[in-house]
């Protein structure tokens, strides 16, 4: 089957534009037809949110393993020169990136618009200003972060002093994704630079405009000897993964996450995996309906049109309350996106026709298609699907099993809200879980019983914007976390440094071993100064 | 074996259920399990000592020092601090999350696997186990089969003290280990070699399981030339203790090799010989103080390290071995070949190669040329060298003037980097290793910032920007409407992209960059009618975004008839209107601004005029004349005042209409001259009054000399050639008067201007 997307090219009349899984908008002048086999029998894991998609042809494979090896070697040389470790270098790079964001704001917004039709204000809020603030925070706090942390030492090592020194890991690889192509590329890079590493960034080929923009801008603004961008798809990524890195930071789907971690294991490279998951929203019946609906809409459709790893995936609410909630959502949707949401410019589009088809397939499944209560319209040429709400979709349908990653919102109902906890816990752990409730009891239970990367009560997405909270998953939704100081830590090694003097030597430690020495040691380990005195005098009783 | 595995399968299911029930999360459960471990150690001390002696020949004092005692210490700490560790930590929040609250809640990971090695079979089993318990996990412990006595002790005795539903000990060799790795865990904690570490991590990747790998590495000791004999003796004592004293060097943290300066080396060797004798006596084999090699395989491995002739020749002390009792004498080698196996592989036995260097500072390069070790031990009093050692090398830990002792410190993390491992533990770090810090943010329904939701506009943008910058005061000003939006971009930016794309397409078909903006498409076929034409120039030095401007004007003007725009020069445009009404309306609606740049529009007669002839130096503007006494608010006065500028055109209103806050006059202004800020009027009664002028829709102009931006040649100099001080300001901009804008926004449905007010 050939997926044909005419889109903006309707006027051309004559040209048919084939869309491969990877190359979305990169065909302005070169029209090519790719054959894409596409069937619904593809295993579900294939549909993970932000994958390194399979490109059909590897015609001009310019970046291979050898090139990657050379690249890593160069960066390693820079790193071992110690240049990246200096405070000045880190500051200058961060300042430069901050400047870049300020100066190239327009271009960034254009690129995001090209890739995802992201409304500029949304692009500004969720990508540019988030990146900027994370850069600013790093600039402000770097000195503080880099400071060795003095810690107390116990009796066991007396007399001594100790500190924990943050040291850069070395040469790190950041693989980012397409849904927030700017933020999710630069945010980890900022962390890596702040921590004093040499970085290679591999932006997603599914957001080609942002990818090439990043490649261009970082050359211009960053120190090329230590910060590089490699553009490309599967082949390039594989070549990169072959190399030995000191850390791999990956954002994307769980399937590729596994590949990354397996590759990392070969070199014992630590990984941070930022994956996705089905983030549930639990809505109690005692909530402020208007506010709840707005916040859900903000966390679903105003957040890259549902294509966000921490976006709302599905709602669980009580049976009686569902109709009210749907009404509220409907009116808020109208408020936000107008009477005809397909016309609204305030939503991003679906990234490419592969994902568009995936979503349409989710919607068209037998048991699902008749559950639509709001929306359901789709426009293939503009890769748009209207905000769609489904009620009481069967739990075994694909839409309830896979991460949706699009503007579809199923609502599941339960008799009692407490039943929902179990329902959530039976699914793989999500990156985020949300609760709307005015009942403190429920709230406490929710925090205690539901396991997820992060939790927001009475709001969505909020936890992401707080630099004092770590952002990261658990279980299927990833490992490791970042943001703010946590980004710095993710790319640092906490080296323990212990200072001892030559004084305070006790023969207890050395052979020949005697029972007396054991007693002294016991006293030492008990940590009680009095006992130690007794032991030294030979009076300590076990 | 199969049966064991089937049992395991059901066991694991039960364990997972227990986890889900929340039993392990309880503080009481964790406490009771930790207490259980304490009792286990207390009641089985003798058995433990015996097992350690059987497996590794450890002296009971050594066993207490390295294993039992350390675990006891860790248990004490865990029990003391558990509640503190478990409590959630508050996090600070930014302003737009007003009335919110955020915290970090530690939660157990679930079901974890601990794989421990044979060299400290008890300590390295129980240390992670107690961390996992403290963090509230269900644990499966697999002790090493190479220390069988300890393994069976743990398997048989430990369960009596612990909750068997959630904590299991599984005995077995590599086959069992492999089976275990196939299962899904929420964390795998592995202590052992790098080779197996890789296998563990690959297996973990399948289930996306996080791992902590505690591996080894060649830990160097660096001995600076110490001048005081006391220091020398202490340092050498500590090196000997760390090499031969801990399980006969079979420890991941023990000293692997020693770096000294050439001139100092013989003194060190002599001192070592003396001190080794002092500790282990003349016949170390008879002393109970040296541990045994764990098994034959490792014994042979160590023996093989010495078979190389070059290596053998470098032995200066010891070297005797006894295969039956698996004993190897404390051995010192001086400068074995650096590429020999003993210098490339982790030694893990009582052989100590001493490498001599010209300068002790060379040790940094020597260390950096090899994989990152778990620890570096530097014996030096040289402060600069210490600092360099910390900043220029990379390792799990750096210890000055001592060795191994970092293992006993709870306040610093214990773990490797690179080849020496991933992750760390000990003390609170153990708890963290087995916990997931869940970010929890709470909000109330009370406050809700409307600017978080679409439809988007610039106002919301501004609010976000200030909020993210923590500019609370600025935010307040914006909310109160006291601060104007500084931001300039809006839909135009993106519109221009679409536009460009469209234009590119057309370019491929037609070779003409003419753009048609047909709004009320009646007959789009016609060329521009020459009846009503305007010529416009954007009063700006730099080239502007053509597409954006044309599109913007199209949106702004909303013509009834057809509007055609064509670029005829840099920043110069030609507009033609099919409808006279449109034409007049636009003409009257001047001045027109784009991005705060004045667009000067001039009537243009296609038949008789050449674009070059058109003079763009003048433009019509509305001025608010402020401060006139009511009595003087008359047409005549307005005219007199208006003529003090270039040319008076008209005055807004008539008769009584004129009397208001100000008089609004339309005048022609020379754009190359400074703006007039006002005028003095001599009143009848003799005194003088200042009348100020405010300009409507004033474009960017120079605050120094008051000339429109393009005409102002910076720097602004006066007649004497000195730079002019700031004389003008935003106060010259009149507040917007809706009445003056004759363009109606509603009714045509084409305008996308609803949210935007930046074009004033």
TrEMBL record, chain A:
User: Which SUPFAM superfamilies has this protein been placed in?
Assistant: ALDH-like (SSF53720)
Alphabetical keyword list: NAD, Oxidoreductase
Give the Aldehyde dehydrogenase domain ranges.
64-497
User: Member of which family?
Assistant: Belongs to the aldehyde dehydrogenase family.
Could you name the active-site residues?
274, 309
Protein name stated in the entry: Aldehyde dehydrogenase
Query: Which catalytic reaction applies to this protein?
Result: an aldehyde + NAD(+) + H2O = a carboxylate + NADH + 2 H(+)
Tell me the InterPro entries matching this sequence: Ald_DH/histidinol_DH, Ald_DH_C, Ald_DH_CS_CYS, Ald_DH_N, Aldehyde_DH_dom, Aldehyde_DH_NAD(P)
An annotated Gene Ontology molecular function: aldehyde dehydrogenase (NAD+) activity
Give the species.
Answer: Theobroma cacao
UniProtKB/TrEMBL annotation, chain B:
| GO biological process annotation, one example | response to abscisic acid
User: What EC number(s) has UniProt assigned to this enzyme?
Assistant: 1.2.1.3
A Gene Ontology term for the protein's cellular component: cytoplasm
Domain Zinc knuckle CX2CX4HX4C stretches: 669-707
Q: Which UniProt keywords apply?
A: NAD, Oxidoreductase
Q: Which reaction does it catalyse?
A: an aldehyde + NAD(+) + H2O = a carboxylate + NADH + 2 H(+)
Kindly name one Pfam family recorded for this protein.
Answer: Aldedh
Highest taxon of the source?
Answer: Eukaryota
Q: Name one GO molecular function term.
A: aldehyde dehydrogenase (NAD+) activity
Q: Where is the Aldehyde dehydrogenase domain?
A: 25-440
The family database entries (SUPFAM superfamilies) matched by this protein are listed as: ALDH-like
Instruction: Name the family the entry cites.
Output: Belongs to the aldehyde dehydrogenase family.
Which PANTHER family did the record assign?
Answer: ALDEHYDE DEHYDROGENASE (PTHR43570:SF30)
Under which name does UniProt file this protein?
aldehyde dehydrogenase (NAD(+))
Q: Which organism is it from?
A: Theobroma cacao
